[in-house]
Write a structure and sequence with these properties.
Elements: H1 3-13, E1 23-26, E2 31-33, E3 47-50, H2 53-58, E4 62-63, H3 83-93, H4 96-99, H5 102-109, H6 113-124, H7 128-146, H8 151-157, H9 163-174, H10 178-182, E5 194-200, H11 207-216, E6 223-226, E7 229-236, E8 239-248, E9 253-259, H12 266-276, H13 283-290, H14 294-302, H15 314-323, H16 329-343, H17 369-372, H18 384-398, H19 410-418, H20 425-434, H21 447-453, H22 457-464, H23 471-480
Helix pairs in contact: 3-7, 15-16, 15-18, 15-20, 19-20
């Protein structure tokens, strides 16, 4: 079946599985919509399909005020098959083009600016600048609709250089000022020191499985998951704060509340949380590949909403992975909590969380690499050999020889990690899988994977070739089938 035919069927049936994976330009109205738009369905000859909202915008269409394209699940960060595009999207989401140029972005990715434009147009139908512009526009529109933030704060949070530029952009795009658009919204009229936004997910979304994975690995003092809420301490622009995530099944979103985090930091925090919870996983594409394997097909029927949880901090995840070498998840979590208790900075909870029983567990920031680079780790329960590995890892990060920036090619990070004595294939693959959100990372030597498949590592690697480029999701499915999963 041709891609155009797939999109046409999804549009006519308003298939929510394709929400955010393509957009519909309506030639008779000049607007672009999500495939689930509730408006009267236009005739086939009057529509055009675009792989991204930015592509529809560049073609001259404006966003629909009814289906709100800014509320669609995000474009998967690995659109197409280009690793460069995936890395570029992550950098743009983190503000690489707010103050920088395409040339600087291309240089960070190790390609020419001309080649970068060509890749973006091939996979997303739009230039890097158009992608960045659309992200800012959509994020600002979401804040207008969902919050009571002053317009000046929204302009800053969305990365606009000035309120004037912010206003001009909205008038040009929507034909209305931001204030006129807000009068259309039903956002609650409350403004305080917390800030809440809704992050749409792509169906199906299995919060229960995701929360089970996170709660078993939550570092005591730093993270907690009680009831339907995941909370963790964060350090943003030198200031400690707390993020809180709750599923909202009715709106099909994760409700993200920030405590003690400045508005200007909102956009990068949102992007990191989307990756932490893997909200944009292209589940249809994943199921199409993995479903060809009888073993995984059965697991997919049980867990169609499989996600690969990300990590808030790459160094923190790497420490956790080293601790997890050849011991149980529970034991590694206990050790991580002891490290946080001894070496992590004690924080005072933001005022909005004081008195809440679930938040009282949050007492520490995870220790920085500079702190752990000289830590002795005595009387914690860590072997001398493991402690030495942790110090070597921390020193590599503290010195700048190793970082977990999203510019990294996964193979580069892998080579940098295994060059550190005490870190092998399992640890490096696990960090690439969750820290870089590399969908094809695969810890083939994991004991749980080997036990579940009845294979040797060599046999499992050969079998997993058919699972590319979604081997990380295959690992999560197999782990999910075990009573004592790895990682």
């Amino acid at each position: 079946m041709q891609q155009h035919e797939i999109y046409e069927r999804a549009r006519l049936s308003r298939d929510a599985r394709f929400d955010g994976q393509f957009f519909v330009g309506v030639k008779t109205t000049g607007i672009y919509c999500r495939p689930i738009c509730p408006a009267v369905t236009p005739k086939s000859e009057n529509v055009a399909f675009y792989p991204s909202a930015a592509a529809a915008g560049e073609a001259g269409f404006r966003p629909c005020l009814r289906c709100r394209p800014e509320s669609a699940p995000g474009t998967p960060a690995w659109s197409g098959t280009s690793t460069t595009v995936r890395r570029g999207l992550r950098l743009i989401a983190n503000g690489a083009l707010d103050d920088g140029s395409i040339e600087q972005l291309a240089d960070r990715l190790g390609v020419t600016s001309r080649h970068l434009r060509r890749l973006f147009n091939r996979h997303l139908g739009a230039s890097p600048l158009a992608i960045a512009h659309t992200q800012r526009l959509h994020f600002a529109k979401q804040l207008i609709d969902e919050t009571r933030l002053p317009m000046s704060n929204i302009a800053v949070a969305a990365g606009y250089g000035s309120v004037r530029r912010f206003n001009d952009t909205f008038r040009k795009t929507y034909g209305r000022s931001p204030r006129e658009l807000r009068r259309r919204s039903d956002a609650p009229g409350r403004a305080d020191s917390t800030l809440t936004v809704h992050l749409p997910w792509r169906r199906p979304f299995d919060w229960a499985a995701l929360s089970d994975f996170l709660v078993n690995r939550a570092t005591p003092g730093v993270e907690c998951l009680t009831g339907a809420a995941y909370l963790r301490t964060v350090l943003i622009d030198g200031r400690p704060g707390v993020i809180e995530c709750r599923p909202d099944a009715e709106r099909e979103t994760v409700c993200l509340t920030l405590h003690g985090v400045a508005t200007r930091s909102l956009f990068p925090v949102v992007q990191r949380v989307r990756e932490l919870l893997d909200l944009d996983a292209p589940l249809t594409d994943i199921a199409q590949v993995l479903g060809e394997d009888p073993l995984l097909a059965a697991m997919l029927r049980q867990r169609p909403g499989v996600r690969v949880p990300g990590a808030w901090n790459g160094f923190e995840l790497a420490v956790r992975a080293v601790l997890g070498q050849q011991i149980s998840v529970k034991a590694a979590t206990t050790l991580a909590g002891r490290i946080a208790e001894r070496y992590g900075e004690r924080i005072q909870l933001p005022e909005t969380l004081r008195g809440r029983d679930d938040a009282m567990q949050l007492t520490r920031l995870f220790p920085a690499a500079t702190t752990l680079s000289r830590a002795r780790f005595n009387s914690i329960g860590i072997t001398g050999r493991r402690a030495a590995t942790l110090r070597r890892l921390a020193r590599a990060v503290a010195s700048g020889r190793l970082d977990f920036d999203s510019t990294h090619d996964p193979d580069e990070l892998y080579r940098s990690l295994i060059a550190i004595e005490g870190i092998g294939d399992w640890t490096a693959q696990y960090v690439a899988m969750r820290g870089l959100k590399y969908p094809d990372a695969f810890p083939a030597t994991d004991l749980g994977l080997l036990k579940a498949t009845g294979s040797t590592a060599a046999q499992l690697r050969r079998q997993a070739e058919a699972w590319r480029p979604w081997r990380a999701y295959a690992a999560m499915l197999i782990w999910g089938s075990l009573s004592n999963p790895g990682g």
